[in-house]
Design a protein that fits this description.
Layout lengths: L1 E4 L4 H9 L5 E4 L1 H4 L11 H16 L4 E12 L5 E2 L13 H14 L4 E14 L2 E14 L14 E3 L11 H7 L1 H23 L1
Parallel strand pairs: 1-2, 1-3
Antiparallel strand pairs: 3-4, 3-5, 5-6, 6-7
Helix pairs in contact: 5-6
Bound molecules: inosine 5'-triphosphate.
Inosine 5'-triphosphate (ITT) binds next to β3 and α4.
């Protein structure tokens, strides 16, 4: 079974691969080259489905399963920013560092050195005649000083509930155990395996 990831985010590819050891997991660009997908949904779930369907429709193959991830961080004290706009918080094409710095600046403008926050991941699974979306969340807080180089995106300013270190400082195994992405993918796994058996029987 080939699992094609509808993402260009290397951090996501790395994390998703560790949850599918033994399976062939390829980012779509390995098959299709770079492709822009307009994420114009109003929710994580809609955007996840938009990405997975776009890649599934472009591949035109009935022997693959496409998996996408739409995710982001929400800070209630900042009016639920950046939420679904996490990847473009500092503007279209902004880097992870620029987005993180914008969040730090927003905290400072509010006079906050930390604030409760949570990550959301919507994982979409699209295969012939099938489409599913699963969610996962990770709660904690954001701080105004980045610490550590691990993870990606907002991880250097995110401290999960029950910990004192940021996801930038904690071992990848800790994030794998706790993360929004892992939780949603653990729900997705039996569905992917079931769809995989259907694909094999169909050929
Ligand atoms: P694709 O759409 O190609 O998958 P993307 O980075 O644009 O890649 P999203 O639109 O889902 O993905 O935006 C997710 C953003 O939320 C991402 O750029 C990070 O800044 C942030 N994010 C999501 N999950 C994260 C995590 O586990 N750790 C840190 N930041 C995360």
């Amino acid at each position: 079974m080939q699992i094609i990831l509808a993402t260009s985010n290397k951090g996501k590819v790395r994390e998703i691969r560790t949850l599918f050891e033994g399976e062939e997991v390829l980012p779509f660009a390995d098959l299709l080259g770079p492709m822009e997908i307009e994420e114009n949904g109003d929710t994580f779930a809609q955007n996840a489905l938009i990405k997975a369907r776009a890649i599934f429709d472009t591949l035109k193959r009935d022997d693959v399963i496409v998996v996408s991830d739409d995710s982001g961080i929400t800070v209630p004290a900042l009016g639920n920013e950046p939420g679904i706009y996490s990847a473009r918080y500092a503007g279209e094409g902004a880097s992870d560092r620029e987005n993180l710095q914008k969040l730090v600046q927003k905290l400072k403008e509010k006079g906050l050195s930390s604030a409760p926050a949570y990550y959301t991941a919507a994982i979409a699974v699209v295969a012939p005649g099938a489409a599913y979306v699963m969610h996962g969340w990770m709660h904690g807080k954001v701080i105004d000083t980045p610490r550590g180089e691990g993870g990606f995106g907002y991880d250097p300013i995110f401290i999960p509930e029950g910990f004192d270190q940021t996801l930038g400082e904690l071992a990848p195994e800790v994030k794998k155990r706790l993360s929004h992405r892992s939780k949603a993918l653990r729900l997705a796994k039996p569905i992917i395996e079931m769809l995989g058996r259907t694909l094999v029987i169909g050929h």
